[in-house]
Amino acid sequence: MSTRLLSFIKVLKAMKKTIFLIGFLSLLLAPYKFVFACRCVQPGAPKEELQTATAVFSGTVVDIDKKKVSVGQGFFEDSYTATFDVEMAWKGVSKKTITVNAGIQGGMCGYPFEEKESYIVYAHGADENGLLTSLCTRTNKLIYAYEDLKELGEGQAELVQNTVPELPAHIQFTSATCG
Prior knowledge:
The chain has about 180 residues and is α+β, with helices and mostly antiparallel strands. The chain has helices spanning about 5-30, 45-50, 145-150, and strands spanning about 55-70, 75-90, 95-105, 120-125, 130, 140. It has a domain at about 45-150: CATH 2.40.50.120.
């Protein structure tokens, strides 16, 4: 082999080592973001989950409110709250419109609700005013909830409207000054 060819091979080997070292260092020194993984225990049968849930209902998402929340170390994720028009209730719901915290999206098990989609929701919380659900519940799109609907049977369809009742026509308010 000629000297010129040997020199060229040495240069290629040196370049290969340099490229590998630059790549390795860039991976090592690159900014990183924490990765969160959602881990759930398999939910039980619909009637079992009905017993442990605060509220179980079906409804259509009419609004989604998104906000950034801190997940530590200066990182933020999206947290969602979904508002539902309730169509059927099996437990813990007395109003026609209800809001459920869907949790933090990403690897934090938040449920990815979509507007105008219908769901069966298994939610937990103190009462119907502070409900939370996640991927770790039986919450699912209604079109995939056949087993739940079959096992739970008929729910309650007559729910209270979330409006202030109108006053009878004979009652009128007038402005008056007290003095």
